[in-house]
């Protein structure tokens, strides 16, 4: 029952509110409008989203934007939905690489249990993967601006809250599942702490991208992940 409720929540969170076209060329135009909306939000802020501005950015007639999105709130809602879809693709890379690392380590070493040596090796390689994920996130400045813009808008528009939980919850769940594999004794709490550090480092490096901050990011991740991967003392 819990799984069904979670599924229902996620379906609600990614609900599309604007008009949904059936023809391929109409779906393409609708997506162009949403992509233009994201560009404007990243460049000028969410308060700059207006039908006329979107039509100009997307190079479509004004009537097209009002046809698919009569209400600006619906346009912002569906643009956030598109941003979530694109973020899920980026986050999937980290999840796939990390779980593959775990399987490969076990297979290479021929171990069925997580020895202290294996956990230490995993922590080093996992830190490298997370740092690469952060590098990809930092390179995508537009997405970082969008992420913060939508977070701020969620504080004013509570209808976006469930969407933000989908965006945040997916990577949290992946981290928690991985920590559970390692036998971590507080996987949910530690998933939140690691996710918080990742987000802080992303923000730090977007604001001030310099070698010193990358060194700080690397050492911070190594220390924190090593602690999370350490064997539990009984």
From TrEMBL:
Residues 1-18 have a biased composition (Basic and acidic residues). InterPro entries: Homeodomain-like_sf, HTH_TetR, Tet_transcr_reg_TetR-rel_C_sf. Residues 19-28 have a biased composition (Basic residues). SUPFAM superfamilies: Homeodomain-like, Tetracyclin repressor-like, C-terminal domain. Residues 50-69 bind DNA. Keywords: DNA-binding. One of its GO terms (molecular function) is DNA binding. This is DNA-binding transcriptional regulator YbjK. It comes from Pseudoteredinibacter isoporae. The lineage of its organism: Bacteria, Pseudomonadati, Pseudomonadota, Gammaproteobacteria, Cellvibrionales.
């Amino acid at each position: 029952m819990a799984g069904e409720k979670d599924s229902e929540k996620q379906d609600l969170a990614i609900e599309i509110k604007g008009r949904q076209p059936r023809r391929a060329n109409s779906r393409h135009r609708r997506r162009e409008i949403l992509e233009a909306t994201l560009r404007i939000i990243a460049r000028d802020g969410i308060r700059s989203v207006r039908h006329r501005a979107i039509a100009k950015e997307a190079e479509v007639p004004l009537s097209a934007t009002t046809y698919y999105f009569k209400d600006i709130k619906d346009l912002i809602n569906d643009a956030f939905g598109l941003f979530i879809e694109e973020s899920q693709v980026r986050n999937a890379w980290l999840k796939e690489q990390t779980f593959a690392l775990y399987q490969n380590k076990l297979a290479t070493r021929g171990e069925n249990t997580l020895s202290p040596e294996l956990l230490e090796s995993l922590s080093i390689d996992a830190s490298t993967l997370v740092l690469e994920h952060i590098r990809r996130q930092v390179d995508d400045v537009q997405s970082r601006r969008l992420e913060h813009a939508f977070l701020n808008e969620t504080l004013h528009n509570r209808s976006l809250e469930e969407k933000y939980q989908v965006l945040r919850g997916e990577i949290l769940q992946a981290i928690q599942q991985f920590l559970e594999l390692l036998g971590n004794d507080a996987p949910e709490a530690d998933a939140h702490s690691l996710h918080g550090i990742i987000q802080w480092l992303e923000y730090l490096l977007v604001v001030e991208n310099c070698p010193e901050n990358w060194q700080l990011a690397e050492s911070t991740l190594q220390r924190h992940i090593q602690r999370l991967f350490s064997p539990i003392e009984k």
